[in-house]
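User: tokens in, sequence out, please.
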């Protein structure tokens, strides 16, 4: 079920990406920069950077832009005061939401995030209030294509170290342990496969369905406003979208 919602998220973000590529690439560049500052500019020894590069490539970020982000971050003062903070809360009707932010002012960011939750029928909770409903996993989404043999893809993924493989109506979902994500990604990329999405993410264990149109509208606006905030890097939730 997590993949079903993921596919809807991908389609929704693709529509936004067409009009906001610059902002999307800025966010990906920031993720790459944070990875470089935490573990250095060599992706062969910095697993966080490897994962960030895979995510950027799957989002069609140009290779030159990826390398530019790495070089820029490597040349900057590593004493940057940006920190990664996760905020947890509930959307309308109890949908679990985790917001990952990169911020140099946690008071400002916390106030902004709280305001967005309150405005759209949710509430910001305490650390740990919803994270137990998610598992951290590597997730690769591949759009279905007549040229892709399902059984062959499944065997390639499992042989490379994937934990799970599932086929849905429009896509294939491959899940990995976070530590195995880059290895599985590299193995499939070398086979010439392209990815609709590839990242280490938070996969919900259970999902929440919404049926009231007004509640659905509020949830959509909550996600959109959170994702549009300059400090927000990722938004994860357990809303099962149709």
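Assistant: Sequence out:
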């Amino acid at each position: 079920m997590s993949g079903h919602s993921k596919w809807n998220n991908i389609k929704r973000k693709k529509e936004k990406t067409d009009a906001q590529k610059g902002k999307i690439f800025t966010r990906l560049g920031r993720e790459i920069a944070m990875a470089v500052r935490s573990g250095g500019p060599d992706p062969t020894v910095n697993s966080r950077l490897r994962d960030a590069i895979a995510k950027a490539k799957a989002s069609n970020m140009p290779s030159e832009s990826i390398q530019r982000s790495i070089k820029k971050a490597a040349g900057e003062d590593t004493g940057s005061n940006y920190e990664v903070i996760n905020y947890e809360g509930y959307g309308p009707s109890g949908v679990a939401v985790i917001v990952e932010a990169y911020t140099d002012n946690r008071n400002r960011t916390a106030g902004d995030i709280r305001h967005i939750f309150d405005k759209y029928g949710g509430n910001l909770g305490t650390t740990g209030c919803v994270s137990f409903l998610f598992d951290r996993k590597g997730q690769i989404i591949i759009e279905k294509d007549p040229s892709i043999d399902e059984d062959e893809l499944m065997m390639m993924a499992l042989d490379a170290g994937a934990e799970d493989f599932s086929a849905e109506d429009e896509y294939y979902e491959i899940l990995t342990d976070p530590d195995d994500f880059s290895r599985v990604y590299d193995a499939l990329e070398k086979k010439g496969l392209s990815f609709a999405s590839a990242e280490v993410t938070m996969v919900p264990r259970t999902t929440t369905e919404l049926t009231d149109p007004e509640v659905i509208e509020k949830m959509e606006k909550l996600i959109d406003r959170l994702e549009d905030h300059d400090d927000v890097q990722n938004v994860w939730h357990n809303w099962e979208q149709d």
